[in-house]
Amino acid sequence: MTIKYTMQEFRLFPTLVLQSRNFIDNDEAKTIYDTLLESNEAEDHIWLSGNALSSSWTKNPQVISKFDFLTDRFKKALQQYADTAGLASLKMHRSWYNIQNKESELLYHSHSPSVVSGALYINVAPGSSGIVFHNDGFYNRNYCWYANGGHTEYTQQEREFPVETGMLMMFPSNLRHRGTHNSTNNRMVVSFDTMFDLEEDY
Amino acid sequence: MPIEHKLFPMLMHEHQNFLTKEEAAVMTEKLIELGDAQEHVLLAGNSTSSVDVNQQVLKEFPYLDDRLQSALDTYTKAAGINDVSVFMSWYNIQDTDSQIIKHAHPTGVVSGVLYCNAVPGTSGIELQNFLADYMRFCWWDVTEETEYTEETHYLPIDVGTLVLIPSNLYHNSLINMTDKRVILAFDAKYHSQLGY
Q1: Closest Cβ–Cβ partner in B71, B129, B149 for A87
Q2: Contact A7/B76, CB-based, under 8 Å?
Q3: How many helices (H) and strands (E) does chain A have?
């Protein structure tokens, strides 16, 4: 007897990453790069190994406020993320920049206690590190690498994205991430955290 | 427009009409006739399970072996993991106002459930998003439930449906509002894990 049944495939509980290429053009990137380099606010940071510096939040927690031309664009991008995810509106509450030279690496971390975080790539040359997201469900699974028959979105421990100048990546702040090994000088990224844009902040 | 990436989902397969209505009726009758189900810590209300006393229920239905293996093969191929086979199976019988409490199957790789008897009003399966505990937003921050914000995913079911999930995925039923909700559940593990 032949049984005819229909199958439906569900991809449950994914994590949303939004990637926008050319969020800024090369001229804008150059302006931001020159301004931040001149500000000289970056210093060593525990999450950066090798020859790399971060402005973190210690000297200037509002790096993006230097660039008025980005204000509306970021508002729109944050609203796109919120609408796609089904979240209330978001607003930026802190931003900083990192600058990495050869043989440096951004170590695994997440951004607490924010909601959505992002990275805007200001100066990225071929050989500059990309961004890698960690699957926090990986160690909860009942199978291990030696029992994987193939590499799929269901088995991957990490997902790597190459990046380029002008690209914006946005992701949940609790999603752990790192950079791959960086092999270029003056790789610059501006990062930010957001919180809900509530009418009555408290 | 930005590119939307959906990272690290969990795979569920639903096979509708995996059993014909006639097969499901025969299985229901047979499982009730077995009569070895008893109370279980994961079942609330008027309900019983064979899981502690009879873990090889599928041997009663050898004509399902090839069909189930084919469904499991489809699942493991899609997931990108090695082949698995069923190593234990049991059945549950639930009456009105009963519920399967949230749980996972720690010894399996892929788990499945076959719905043998379900009338309208019978509870389907509810899957739990373990990431909900880590997300930095709560229900009042959510303007619309999407695949990114849902804490649970509910799948209504019909008689004859087969559902396959990763064994580590927590799941439960809602409160069951019908008599004689009968399911056959099973765990599968890698061929290399079988036999010792």
Answers
A1: B149
A2: no
A3: 2, 12
The CA distances from residue A122 to A48, A201, B52, B99, B149, in Å, are 18, 32, 61, 54, 31
pLDDT digits (tens, 9 = 90+) for A24-39: 999 999 999 999 999 9
What type of residue sits at position B72?
L
pLDDT digits (tens, 9 = 90+) for B118-163: 888 788 999 999 888 777 777 778 899 999 999 999 999 999 999 9
On chain A, the residues whose CB falls within 8 A of the CB of B67 are: 3
Q: What is the ipTM for the molecules in this complex?
A: 0.90
Buried b (16+ CB within 10 A) or exposed e, B46-85: ebbbbbeebeebbebbeebeebbeebbeebbebbbbbbbb
CA closest to B12 among chain A residues:
A10
Residues forming beta bridges with residue A178, ordered by sequence position: A132
Task: Say what the pTM is.
Answer: 0.91
Contact B134 A174 (CB under 8 A): yes
Contact of A2 with chain B, judged by CB distance below 8 Å, is answered with no
What phi and psi, each to the nearest 5 degrees, are found at residue A167?
Answer: -85, 140
Of A149, A7, A14, A157, nearest in space to B112 by CA: A7
Looking only at the bridges linking them, the beta strands covering B181-190 and A48-49 are unpaired
- List C-alpha distances in Å: B164 to A10, B18, B110, B113: 10, 12, 7, 7
